[in-house]
Design brief:
heterodimer; A: mainly alpha; B: alpha+beta; Alpha-Beta Plaits; two-stranded antiparallel ribbon; 8 strands; 32% helix
Chain lengths: 193, 280
């Protein structure tokens, strides 16, 4: 139990996927304009990351390793993630319509989210077992969620802030993303797992 | 080396094929039957996604129509033909008012209005507006930088002699221009209304006259001339009630500043010739 909390808190605070590992920057900047869409997007990311960790672990363990095809890891994981997202979309559309509607356009967008591929590759690199992979995938999704929701709150405030003309829009967003990342540096060394 | 290459290709190809088959089977197995009616309605709509109906786009409106949540007359772009098509699909009867068009309530052409200063900044209405409410002495009139021209998705607005003019046959009543005009001088009027007071100036007569040759000075001559009592002067500005107006044009004859214009009702070409005061 202690271990689980350590992994989750450590991933969120110490090695936040967006703010410390700089993965998934594109959706981080793209869908952080509004709190609503940020919540939708990060919900979908948590969902897909958890599933993708499980499936890619299985693909690596039962297909790649026995056949000595480790060098195909990246490309096959891309394939797995893309197919998985499509599959999940079809299933959700059929059986859980409300969830499908609330995730909306963000579900297919995740196909190209590099944080998802990143967590799958990191699981293998750190030689995590199945349970640990799923847990790490879940907490990586949560770390994305925390970063995205924090940042969308900041951006909503920026809309009304008195910003110099030259910095209006994306420039000030990038600057504040940098400050947010700096702030998260303060958590460095808080946990180790 | 060769076998390595072959296994890689076979592996990736196989994986792709496997996923392909799974997805194909899943999409057949878990296919969600979309409502045929929604698709039919969507086909009938123009697809401009302008949002004039109040929904976020043609798709959203189509769903609302198919689910019988709203009137079938909301699409202003499609107008009557779309209404008829939707009547066939839904079996409901379209009951709607007359088509409305946007009209710019300003006649202050470059010749008629006076400038307060030379402006050489960004060429948009919004920017001029932010600088002392524009470079016209008249604080109400068209700024002539064409924000509405650029905003119109149907290419229905032209800048003629420094005043925006809406080609009423192209106007689709989406009201986007009304939203972008910083002076708020664009108004929706019934298509059949031919006579309009082309001025929005609420200054007192003497002040208005100094700022623009065709300003409404609120003299009230039109009110007296109108045979159906359709005109009312409020805040030194005459206003026509289009429901009462019979397009007789008596007010145009008596207006001392020619602030009342007749718009070409056949809408074949632009007719915009304000008579300029003879002594001016």
């Amino acid at each position: 139990m202690r271990q689980i909390i350590f992994v989750i808190m450590g991933t969120i605070l110490v090695e936040n996927f967006v703010l410390q590992k700089f993965l998934g920057i594109c959706p981080f900047l793209g869908v952080s304009k509004k709190m609503d869409s940020a919540i939708g997007m990060s919900g979908a990311v948590v969902f897909v990351m958890t599933l993708a960790s499980a499936v890619t672990w299985a693909v690596n363990e039962y297909i790649l390793l026995p056949n000595e095809l480790e060098f195909l890891r990246t490309i096959s994981f891309i394939l797995v993630v893309a197919a998985l997202v499509q599959f999940v979309e079809i299933i959700l559309k059929k059986f859980i319509k409300p969830l499908y509607k609330s995730l909306g356009i963000y579900l297919p967008l995740i196909t190209t989210n590099c944080a998802v591929l990143g967590v799958a590759l990191l699981n293998i690199q750190r030689t995590y077992g199945f349970g640990m992979s799923v847990l790490y995938g879940f907490s990586a999704g949560l770390s994305f969620m925390v970063a995205l929701i924090l940042f969308s709150g900041i951006r909503e405030r920026l809309e009304t802030a008195d910003v110099p003309d030259a910095f209006k829009g994306l420039p000030i967003a990038l600057v504040s993303a940098a400050f947010l990342s700096l702030a998260f540096m303060g958590f460095q060394g808080l946990f180790s797992f | 080396m060769n076998s390595n290459l072959l296994t890689s290709v076979a592996y990736i190809g196989g994986l792709g094929l496997l996923f392909g088959i799974i997805l194909a089977v899943a999409s057949k197995l878990f296919a969600v039957r979309r409502d045929r009616k929604v698709e039919e309605v969507r086909e009938a709509l123009p697809g401009a996604n302008c949002g004039a109906c109040g929904y976020s786009g043609c798709d959203a409106y189509a769903e609302a129509v198919a689910a019988d949540e709203c009137d079938i007359t909301l699409c202003t772009v499609g107008g009557e033909s779309v209404c008829r098509a939707l009547e066939k699909i839904t079996g409901k009867e379209a009951v709607g008012g007359e088509r409305k068009v946007a009209r710019v309530l300003c006649g202050g052409t470059l010749e008629n209005r006076k400038k307060s200063f030379e402006y050489s900044g960004l060429q948009t209405c919004l920017d001029v507006q932010m600088l002392y409410s524009g470079n016209n002495i008249c604080g109400y009139g068209c700024l002539g930088m064409g924000d509405c021209v650029r905003a119109c998705p149907f290419d229905a607005i032209r800048m003629i002699e420094g005043v925006a003019f809406i080609l009423e046959d192209k106007c689709k009543s989406c009201e986007i221009c009304i939203g972008v005009c910083p002076k708020h001088i664009i108004e929706m009027v019934p298509e059949s209304a031919a006579v309009t007071i082309a001025c929005s100036n609420k200054d007192k007569g003497a002040v208005a006259m100094k700022s623009c040759k065709t300003a409404c000075i609120g003299c009230g001559k039109c009110v007296k001339a109108c045979p159906v009592d359709a005109i009312e002067v409020k805040d030194f500005l005459a206003k026509i009630d289009y429901e009462k107006c019979i397009n007789c044009g008596k007010c145009i004859e008596v207006c001392p500043t020619n602030a009342i214009l007749r718009y070409n009702n056949k809408r074949k070409k632009i007719v915009r010739k304000p008579k300029i005061n003879e002594e001016a």
